[in-house]
Structure formats: C-alpha cells, structure tokens
Please model this.
Amino acid sequence: MAGRAKRLRIHGRVQGVFYRAWTVETARGLGLAGWVRNRADGTVELVARGEAEAIERLIALCREGPPAARVERIVVEAAPDEPAPEPFEKRPTA
Model:
C-alpha cells in the first residue's frame, strides 16, 4: 500500500485492555496497512501506512482507545519506508 507511514508509541494503561485487538479493527476499518504490538516496557507500538487523513483519524482515535484503556500520551514519528502488512495485523510482544 502506497502512502505515508507513522509509528506510534502509546503510553498509559494500554496493555491487557483489548487495545491491540481494538487497534486492528479500527485500522482495518480505516483501510490502513501495518501492525500493532505490546512492548516489554508496558507501551503499545504501531506502524500504520495509508492515506494521510486515515492515519490522522487513527491517531485521534488512539488517544481514547477502547473503553478500559487510559491513554496518557502518544509519541508520533515518521515510520521507515518499508512495506506494511495488509490487512493490518497484531504482532507478538517485543
């Protein structure tokens, strides 16, 4: 999938609250490619590739997340120019 790519690191109460599965469902609904995974430090990391408007919408939605999550902050940066899996997928903890 062509387009822009962003890497997000989500901080807060984001593990064990359905955040990754919610992200997969949300990103697929927006037509994005990429992946999401838990990090050993308690954060969630994701890479999303697609249309700029869809990525911005995902970022806005990630600030809330699923009902049980409490997002404290999100660090957003450009992602490396590499292929992103389609459909959007959940990966193992890193």
